[in-house]
Amino acid sequence: MKWGGRFAVLAVSGLALGALLTGPASAASGGLARTDAGTLAEIDCGATHTAGSRLEISCYNPDSEPGSVDVTYVCSTPLDGRQVVFTEPGNPIGAGAALRLSRDCGPGQVVLTYQVWPLTASQLGDQAARQERIRRQRDQEEGR
Fold first, then answer.
1. Does 14 have pLDDT greater than 50?
2. Most CB contacts within 10 A, which of 17, 63, 120, 127?
3. Is 91 helix (H, G, I), strand (E, B) or coil?
4. pTM for this one?
């Protein structure tokens, strides 16, 4: 019975993270965006790693525009075997800047999994425009 509860919590956590993993920038290194010069720019979060109960997030934005890094991570809990999901959207990262964050799950806990989703300003704009287009289409189809 104990295993069933863990499985259910993991399944729900997996579904929540799965939505992020299927997004356009699912890799830890982020998606690609075009710079003013027409070359590809990418926010690199490849140095992000776990160390026991800590999640060490390290990103670099070589783009000429600022960006944002969304972070989701799952911690174990030693008392009852449940998992706790933390979501931190919108951590700003400047143009040509580094972002370093450290998150700690606490004593006796470990980071089970994490997702780092970096987006440049151009990608954020594209995403907002795409969401607005979907909303308008939905509203039109439903007669709103």
1. no
2. 120
3. strand
4. 0.66
